[in-house]
Amino acid sequence: MQELNLPKYSLKFKSKNGKVYIYDFIRKKYLVNTPEEWVRQNFIQFLILEKNYPASLMAVEMGIDVLNTKKRCDIVLYNTKGLPSIIVECKAPSVKISQDAFDQIARYNLSLNSKFLIVTNGLQHYICVMDHENKCYHFLKEIPNYSN
């Protein structure tokens, strides 16, 4: 898999029927190691180990309803009150991050009303804070730590 713009983590792998699987520590199961899954699992470790987000407050591939359509959020981080605080959209490293990715995560946020949105392809990471009152978002220089 492609090297990412994240620290290197000790991830678990296994092979079966010619396919490589990566272990998802949140869902407690092995998944086919696609480029997007590679980014997702590394970013989960980044959030836990570097930014101190508790794994117990994370949901992965969470189903939501967006304008009567079923969608899945890559990663949702909750606050201690059980409300969505951060939504993360992961793309494969080969996918250029564009306005479409931000539009996608903004649509997801219509249902979740999260404060922060993150889009990453493992090479570039963008974070914005929502201004719900003015229906826009502002980019931040870095992802805040959990304690902030």
Number of folding domains? 1
Estimate the mean pLDDT confidence.
92
Distance between the termini: 33 Å
Biggest pleated-sheet summary:
6 strands, mixed
State the CATH class: Alpha Beta
Kindly estimate the percentage of residues that lie in beta strands according to DSSP.
Answer: 35-45%
What structural class do helix, strand and pairing data support?
Answer: alpha+beta
Total helix count?
2
Under CATH, the topology can be stated as tt1808, chain A
The largest sheet has its strands arranged as 4-5-6-7-8-9
Based on CA atoms alone, the radius of gyration comes out at: 15 Å
String of helices and strands: EEEHEEEHEEE
Helix amount:
10-25%
Q: How many β-strand runs?
A: 9
Extract low-pLDDT stretches.
Answer: none
CATH architecture field: Alpha-Beta Complex
Overall, the morphology is globular
Quick recap of the structure?
The protein has helices spanning 35-50, 99-112; strands at 13-16, 19-24, 29-32, 58-66, 69-78, 84-90, 116-120, 125-131, 136-140. With 148 residues, it is of the alpha+beta class. The protein has a single domain (13-140), classed as tt1808, chain A (Alpha-Beta Complex).
